[in-house]
UniProtKB/TrEMBL annotation:
Its EC number is 3.5.1.118. This is Gamma-glutamyl-hercynylcysteine sulfoxide hydrolase. The keyword Glycoprotein does not apply. One of its GO terms (molecular function) is hydrolase activity, acting on carbon-nitrogen (but not peptide) bonds, in linear amides.
Length: 246
């Protein structure tokens, strides 16, 4: 369920990554090629990006399908950035959360997305609730599992944990509390990307020009795309990429 991607590279229109490629994230909202769970990603979408000189990202999110929003098409055509994170949300049950449930979630300089599902939600999260300060729980943007996962990760980040430790620690805790969960997490601060492959697909593409793309699935047929093994932590910036077992 859901599709997401993060990009670090030279300054370019947002649409060069999310809309223009033949199998871009916009197309993945109705015709994903490698999605294992769910069939259509129409319950919201979002994109976050960084402007030069400002460490805090901007966001654009909506509750409906991305293909029905002409403003999004205009935005990604003209706005340029060196870093972005975007996501489309799988069709789910009725909810009053609206666009608040759509990634990316944010705190300080971070953008975050969760591709997957927490089994037994919300009861399975009860043992983990004490790991998050009460104020942070009260400030949850939405009542969905992804917002709670972000609360766990954000608490670790804001307490000073490195992004690799924040994601890995959250995934291990969530997997123990809710076995069988799918926990593909994606995080960026505009300078680095950290991600987990846990129960769903994750791919990466690196190339000349100090560019790296991490995505649920390839957005074109470039042979340089490589799949990340399941239960793996990915860490990358514009010049290096590493994989380690979770």
């Amino acid at each position: 369920m859901c599709r997401h991607l993060a990009v670090l590279g030279p300054c370019a229109p947002l649409g060069a990554s999310v809309a223009d490629p033949p199998y871009a994230l916009v197309r993945q909202s109705w015709a994903p090629r490698r999605q294992r769970h769910g069939t259509v990603n129409a319950d919201g979408f979002g994109i976050g990006w960084y402007a030069d000189g400002d460490p805090r990202p901007a966001r654009y999110r909506r509750a409906g399908p991305v293909w029905a929003d002409p403003s999004f098409a205009d935005l990604v055509r003209v706005v340029r950035s060196r870093a972005l994170l975007a996501a489309v949300r799988d069709a789910t049950g009725p909810s009053g959360d609206g666009e608040a449930a759509a990634a990316p979630f944010t705190a300080d300089r971070w953008l975050f997305s969760h591709n997957g599902a927490l089994t037994g939600w919300p009861e399975s999260a009860e043992p983990l609730a004490p790991l998050v300060p009460p104020g942070a729980l009260l400030r949850l943007e939405a009542r969905c599992d992804a917002a709670f996962v972000w609360a766990l990760v954000a608490h670790r980040l804001l307490a000073g944990a490195a992004p690799e430790r924040a994601l890995a620690g959250a995934v291990v805790a969530l997997a123990e509390a809710a076995p069988g969960s799918r926990l593909n997490l994606l995080l960026t601060d505009g300078a680095s990307v950290t991600a987990t492959a846990w129960g769903d697909t994750l791919w990466y593409l690196t190339g000349p020009g100090e560019r790296v793309v991490v995505a649920s699935e390839p957005y074109d047929d470039d042979p340089r795309w490589a799949e990340v093994p399941d239960r793996t932590l990915l860490s990358a910036d514009r010049t290096r990429l590493s994989l380690s077992s979770l």
